[in-house]
């Protein structure tokens, strides 16, 4: 009862013990509950079906003595009640009656309407009640722990790291955040690549994101990935600093609609995502080879050994690490092309960190994807474009 930070942490631990967890909180977003694998239900449904009821709600005029004789009468006989919220949410005399009648089999309390409770309190002395002092956050160890956690969170945020404790960003548990970290980088870089492929004067209105995965909808929380894709798309074309907090809001301001879909594949669910595909319809492209038969700009990438890779451009399969910057060349498939372009880059002191060639068939069309550490000078790019077999090329900055 109550699905804020503490309630959601309790839910995660209960799920780990194999319990089916439901929650009631009129203010909790459904996507947060789904991310933890919890079902949000009504107050009456929660109290009438739960075997264990854990309270994590604030004390307000609405919640004061919300657990009373009427409430206890609706509970499943033999339920266990845990209150670590505020003592005033329970009518203590009514709880004693519920314990005596067996409606509540046991209660565990560390908060009371009056603290400390009276020595002759029937609740404290009841044989089916376990009580602890309301001191959890006031111990020396707890205060030190909170101070360290705050300092680490601030340092991490200043270093540009993702945070599992931000209250105004997508809420993702720490272990899931760690698992998604390389895919977060992939999502942002794919967004940056996609928007740079759009030719000037083409207004982006719609973006479609596909997550190719073996996991079910309840095992994959994509809110963080969506925010990073949005950041990658908007930041290169905006004067604003885009982050996880304002990404969706800024997209709405710009009239940008982002749709998401999950594409199921029969592969190992060990990795959360096989690949991410971004499509931008109804625009012109700076690099025509990224256009699919449907007329959309389409790129796809995946994480390999913890590093984001670009794996598809339009209908061409490529494999280039998304580190540094990228040059895409479409050319006639023939011997010597890698060497010619490589020599031009070497002459201009541009280091190649990765190179991949994808082709439609032997001696036909091919795409060369080149990862470079530095941004080539205009003269180097001009010379690449002058190579007779090169039909088009584009430089993309990451």
From TrEMBL:
Pfam families: 2-Hacid_dh_C, ACT, PGDH_inter. PROSITE patterns: ACT, D_2_HYDROXYACID_DH_2, D_2_HYDROXYACID_DH_3. It comes from the Eukaryota. Its EC number is 1.1.1.95. It is an enzyme of class 1 (oxidoreductase). Keywords: Chloroplast, Oxidoreductase, Plastid, Transit peptide. Residues 326-398 form the ACT domain. It is found in: Plastid, Chloroplast. One of its GO terms (cellular component) is chloroplast stroma. SUPFAM superfamilies: ACT-like, NAD(P)-binding Rossmann-fold domains, Serine metabolism enzymes domain. The keyword Transit peptide applies. It catalyses: (2R)-3-phosphoglycerate + NAD(+) = 3-phosphooxypyruvate + NADH + H(+). GO terms for molecular function: NAD binding; phosphoglycerate dehydrogenase activity. Pathway: Amino-acid biosynthesis; L-serine biosynthesis; L-serine from 3-phospho-D-glycerate: step 1/3. This is phosphoglycerate dehydrogenase. It comes from Chenopodium quinoa.
């Amino acid at each position: 009862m109550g699905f804020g930070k503490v309630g959601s942490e309790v839910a995660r631990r209960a799920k780990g013990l194999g319990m089916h967890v439901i929650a009631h909180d009129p203010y909790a977003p459904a996507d947060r509950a789904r991310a933890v694998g919890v079902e949000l239900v009504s107050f009456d449904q929660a109290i009438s079906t739960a075997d264990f009821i854990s309270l994590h709600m604030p004390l307000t005029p609405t919640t004061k003595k919300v657990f009373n004789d009427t409430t206890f009468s609706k509970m499943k006989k033999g339920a266990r009640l845990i209150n670590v919220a505020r003592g005033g949410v329970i009518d203590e005399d009514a709880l004693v009656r519920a314990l005596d009648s067996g409606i509540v089999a046991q209660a565990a309390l560390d908060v009371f309407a009056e603290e400390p409770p009276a020595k002759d309190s029937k609740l404290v002395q009841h044989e089916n009640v376990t009580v602890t002092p309301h001191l959890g956050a006031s111990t020396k160890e707890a205060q030190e722990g909170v101070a360290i956690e705050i300092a680490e969170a601030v340092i991490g945020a200043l270093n540009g790291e993702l945070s599992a404790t931000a209250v105004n960003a997508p809420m993702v548990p720490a272990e899931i955040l760690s698992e998604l970290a390389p895919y977060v980088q992939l999502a942002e870089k794919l967004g940056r690549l996609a928007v740079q492929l759009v030719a000037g004067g083409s207004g982006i209105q719609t973006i479609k994101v596909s997550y190719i995965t073996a996991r079910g909808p309840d095992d994959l929380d994509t809110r963080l990935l969506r925010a990073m894709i949005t950041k990658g798309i908007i930041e290169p074309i905006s004067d604003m600093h885009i982050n996880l907090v304002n990404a969706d809001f800024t997209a709405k301001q710009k009239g940008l609609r982002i749709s998401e879909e999950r594409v199921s594949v029969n592969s190992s669910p060990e990795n959360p995502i096989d690949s991410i595909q971004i499509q931008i319809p109804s625009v012109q492209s700076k690099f025509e080879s990224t256009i699919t038969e449907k007329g959309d700009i389409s790129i796809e990438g995946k994480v390999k050994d913890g590093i984001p890779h670009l794996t598809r451009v339009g209908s061409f399969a490529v494999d280039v690490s998304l580190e540094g910057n990228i040059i895409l060349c479409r050319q006639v498939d023939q011997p010597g092309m890698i060497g010619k372009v490589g020599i031009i880059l070497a002459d201009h002191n541009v280091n190649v960190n990765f190179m991949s060639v994808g082709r439609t068939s032997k001696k036909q069309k091919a795409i060369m994807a080149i990862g470079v550490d530095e941004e080539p000078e205009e003269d180097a790019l001009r010379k690449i474009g002058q190579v007779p077999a090169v039909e088009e090329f584009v430089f993309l900055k990451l």
